[in-house]
């Protein structure tokens, strides 16, 4: 997919400027151009020249053309899913979607909004129908007044983090200031965090008693007694993370409140969920401060297990933090991070790239993330190619979370970390792989309902908009264009 023409980058430039709190006049001064010229660029009345694009990269730390390319890829993937969900067949090609996303992105977003409204209306009708025939007994119908939210809260939060390329600069800066100001020392984070909570916020940290521990409970804060209880059995890195998360709520409540007022968080549940996610982001940034962690990641060639040993944290924590290292002027490898269970449910998903997680039709069974369950504890690698030609290097491994004693159920997940293939040479996991051989890549897709690979032997069902001819000799789906 080609890079978007510079003539259509005005909206993105305006968004970046406003996100950094700059007026047109202030940014124009930094770029060395007139405010009227910048105004014309933002309104797409003047093309963005290569010289100005380079200045923007130097001033804002962002290659505007690459950023727009990534957003274009996400829009294409969302449109493809919407069409599949609506049962539209293969007559709408990838080239058609690329043209729409590149030249009329606002129209593409409007089509997505219409699809979400239609889907919400269908869901309301199904619930009301269930109530009408008695199947809805014991449930609460979706309200007619005001309508249903166009996106589920977690989708709103996902889009919020996508919009920021999974990097929250304000929280990273706040976390690093703890070290720069001498309030924390990397080698003694636990002691330092307990001291900060006690001296600055009057909070005492203690372990929870066995009787106080509920399934899944990691910490409990009592604002009346100013006591933070931590679940027994947490390792040192987990204790640090939980203390840092509580510190975010106590010390940066105002910053969290400002961040969740973003337009993409349109519902109260989404804002509440985003607040928790942002506190967790801050905690990760405290335990793994940006500068020190990025330096170690580059020096160790992104070896996840060596990074875990160096900072005293687990495999999943390292992977999650690696997916956030997109500071302007000092970026790490742009990663995709995902956590799935044995049933294929995706419980965590973050991306600093244009890789898209399907909301319909599940994910691809050929993805190495699922193979990790068959080889627990081993780090697996895969070069995977999507239907649009983009190739990625994926790393996958299982992790197990367990609380309680004998017979207490544990939770096993597969963690996946991926990056664009052109970045793979920076990773230790590329050793021994022929990154230039197209035959090495495994063809995968975002999910069977949206995947264009009609000849895949692992299809669960044919693509949306196609009928199926069952071939008894080949014993698999044989998709044909609908008559």
Automatic annotation (TrEMBL):
For this UniProt entry, what's an example GO CC term?
cytosol
Q: Does the keyword Glycosyltransferase apply?
A: no
State if Transcription is listed as a keyword. Answer: yes
Sorted alphabetically, the keyword list is: DNA-binding, Transcription, Transcription regulation
Domain of life where this protein originates: Bacteria
Gene3D superfamilies per record: lambda repressor-like DNA-binding domains (1.10.260.40)
**CDD domains documented for this protein:** HTH_XRE
> A Pfam family name for this chain?
ScfRs
List, in alphabetical order, the Gene Ontology terms for molecular function in this entry. DNA binding; DNA-binding transcription factor activity
InterPro entries assigned: Cro/C1-type_HTH (IPR001387), HTH_RamB (IPR026281), IrrE_HExxH (IPR010359), Lambda_DNA-bd_dom_sf (IPR010982), ScfR_C (IPR018653), TransReg_Diox_bact_type (IPR050807)
Q: Which ranges carry the HTH cro/C1-type domain?
A: 13-67
Concerning its family, UniProt says: Belongs to the short-chain fatty acyl-CoA assimilation regulator (ScfR) family.
Q: What is the protein named? A: XRE family transcriptional regulator
Organism lineage: Bacteria, Pseudomonadati, Pseudomonadota, Alphaproteobacteria, Rhodospirillales
């Amino acid at each position: 997919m080609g890079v978007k023409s510079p003539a259509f980058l005005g909206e993105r430039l305006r968004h970046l400027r406003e996100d950094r709190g700059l007026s047109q006049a202030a940014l124009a001064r930094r770029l060395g151009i007139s405010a009227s010229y910048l105004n014309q660029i933002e309104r797409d009345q003047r093309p963005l020249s290569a010289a100005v694009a380079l200045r923007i990269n130097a001033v804002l730390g962002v290659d505007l053309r690459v950023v727009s390319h990534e957003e274009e890829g996400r829009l294409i993937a969302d449109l493809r899913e919407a069409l599949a969900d609506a049962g539209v067949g293969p007559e709408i090609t990838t080239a058609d979607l690329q043209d729409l996303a590149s030249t009329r992105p606002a129209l593409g977003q409007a089509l997505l909004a219409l699809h979400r409204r239609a889907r919400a209306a269908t869901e309301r009708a199904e619930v009301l129908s269930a109530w009408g025939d008695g199947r809805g007994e014991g449930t609460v119908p979706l309200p007619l007044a005001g309508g249903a939210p166009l996106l589920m809260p977690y989708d709103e939060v996902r889009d919020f983090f996508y919009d920021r390329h999974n990097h929250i600069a304000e929280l990273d800066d706040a976390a690093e200031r703890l070290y720069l100001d001498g309030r924390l020392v990397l080698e003694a984070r636990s002691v330092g965090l307990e001291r900060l909570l006690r001296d600055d916020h009057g909070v005492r940290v203690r372990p929870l008693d066995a009787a106080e521990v509920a399934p899944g409970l990691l910490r409990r804060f009592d604002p009346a007694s100013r006591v933070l209880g931590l679940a027994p059995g947490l390792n040192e890195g987990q204790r640090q993370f939980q203390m840092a998360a509580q510190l975010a709520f106590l010390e940066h409540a105002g910053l969290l409140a400002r961040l969740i007022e973003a337009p993409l968080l349109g519902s109260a549940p989404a804002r509440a969920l985003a607040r928790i996610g942002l506190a967790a982001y801050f905690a990760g940034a405290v335990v793994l401060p940006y500068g020190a962690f990025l330096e170690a990641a580059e020096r160790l060639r992104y070896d996840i297990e060596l990074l875990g040993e160096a900072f005293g944290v687990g495999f999943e924590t390292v992977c999650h933090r690696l997916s956030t290292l997109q500071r302007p002027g000092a970026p790490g490898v742009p990663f995709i991070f995902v956590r799935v269970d044995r049933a294929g449910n995706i419980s965590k998903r973050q991306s600093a790239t244009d890789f898209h997680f399907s909301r319909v039709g599940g994910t691809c069974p050929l993805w190495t993330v699922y193979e990790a369950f068959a080889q627990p504890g081993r780090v697996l690698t895969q070069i995977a190619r999507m239907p649009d030609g983009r190739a990625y290097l994926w790393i996958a491994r299982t992790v197990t979370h367990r609380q309680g004693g004998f017979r207490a159920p544990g939770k096993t997940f597969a963690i996946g970390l991926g990056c664009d293939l052109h970045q793979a040479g920076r990773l230790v996991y590329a050793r021994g792989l022929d990154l230039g051989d197209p035959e090495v890549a495994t063809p995968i897709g975002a999910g069977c309902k949206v995947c264009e690979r009609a000849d895949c032997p692992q299809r669960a069902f044919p693509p949306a908009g196609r009928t199926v001819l069952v071939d008894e000799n080949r014993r698999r789906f044989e998709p044909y264009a609908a008559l």
